[in-house]
Design goal:
With about 60 residues, this protein is mainly alpha-helical. It is about 50% helix and about 0% strand. It has 3 helices and no strands.
Length: about 60
């Protein structure tokens, strides 16, 4: 059983899980990632991006446009 202090779960719509499964197969060429690892890679990539909009959510962007 996973350590509850080290891991957490999230709930996703089934349509989102389908998209995630496709991304997991194509995110790193030649590797099939698990869903959890694909999410981790995407978050780490986006989180380390220097040209991201900090503090802006989709809702904030929609309200300002």
């Amino acid at each position: 059983m996973p350590n509850p202090h080290k891991y957490k779960s999230i709930s996703l719509k089934t349509s989102t899980v389908s998209k995630l499964n496709l991304l997991a197969k194509t995110l790193i060429p030649g590797m099939n990632l698990s869903s959890a690892k694909a999410v981790e890679v995407m978050i780490d990539t986006i989180g380390s991006s220097e040209d991201r909009n900090t503090g802006m959510t989709n809702e904030t962007v929609e309200k300002t446009t």
